[in-house]
């Protein structure tokens, strides 16, 4: 029952998180943004909340426990969704961003609690398999959400943009007000759903798990008393930062890249869903293969190598092929979180919750790297800016091959 409840939570994570791919082009038009990088403030506001709130989230969970902390996170997300109403009514970009930041804050509490929870539900060597199951819940929702929101908010958007060019200021404002209002109903539905789910979690039979930071014998691995005594964790934090950045780039920039090739919006807005489907395929492979046929660290190495290859192809091949290479980057990204997270917190003992919170902070990669991509498009073009993914995948490959063992090699000896 516990896994089912956590699976529902991961579905909510995915639905809310991957709405950003649709919100970026939508808000660029509705809020009359002038520069490419401004659109990626959507991802910045959402993901920077993880960096700001991850450690406070760890403190909150100490006070509330996992179950009540999850309920609180859902209610905070509902408040963020509520802010979309005044934001849409006034077409105030700052209010949209504040709503996204608050939703990210709620998610940081949920993520900080739920990822160690899933890992604790079974043996460490199959942790990637369990996280992969949660990933399917997340990515199925992520595949659905752009389709639903896109059909509401981006329908006939090319026609609208053409009409806006011929309107006077008053007519243009009226049309943009109408466009902005299209976000109200979806986010009211999201808000109500989050409140209902919060109540469900509160009164559910979700079992409590042992707090790793309170366990006796938590210093059994080498007597390490400080979180700074685990270099593999800090390498893992950098790895997760880079991974989340390239994962968000692969999904949230693809509509803009498609439009740069003069693709119409009705076609372009489907590509994030294709990327999510690729991720789902990867998670299914992970469930079948890990750890029976391949270890989670070898799976990570394969995915990182595939990311290097597809990243190079995205930059060098013609646009009509390149965009499918970019889409397939999501396949390469699929097994990275399920492998990086458990490898990074392996052997932390009583420091597990703090290590988890630090890893959640690394989700800020989704805030900063897309902003960097948006800035690079000015000088390198939409396609050339994808060169920035190459060093990211190379570092992830290093973590998979050697970095995850730094300082704790003795724990891997048979």
UniProtKB/TrEMBL annotation:
Similarity-based family: Belongs to the major facilitator superfamily. FHS transporter (TC 2.A.1.7) family.
Protein name: Glucose/galactose MFS transporter
InterPro entries with a match to the protein in the record: Glc/Gal_transptr_bac (IPR005964), MFS (IPR011701), MFS_dom (IPR020846), MFS_trans_sf (IPR036259), MFS_TsgA-like (IPR050375)
Parts of the chain that traverse the membrane: 7-27, 39-61, 68-87, 93-110, 131-154, 184-201, 233-258, 270-290, 299-317, 323-348, 355-373, 385-408
Function: Intake of glucose and galactose.
Keyword Transmembrane helix in record: yes
PANTHER family, sorted: L-FUCOSE-PROTON SYMPORTER (PTHR43702), N-ACETYL GLUCOSAMINE TRANSPORTER NAGP (PTHR43702:SF12)
Any one of the GO CC terms: plasma membrane
Lineage of origin: Bacteria, Pseudomonadati, Bacteroidota, Bacteroidia, Bacteroidales
SUPFAM superfamilies tied to this protein: MFS general substrate transporter (SSF103473)
Transmembrane helix as UniProt keyword: yes
Pfam family, one: MFS_1
Domain Major facilitator superfamily (MFS) profile: 1-210
Topological relation to the membrane, as annotated: Multi-pass membrane protein
Subcellular location: Cell inner membrane
Stored PROSITE patterns: MFS
GO MF annotation list: D-glucose transmembrane transporter activity; galactose transmembrane transporter activity
Keywords: Cell membrane, Membrane, Transmembrane, Transmembrane helix
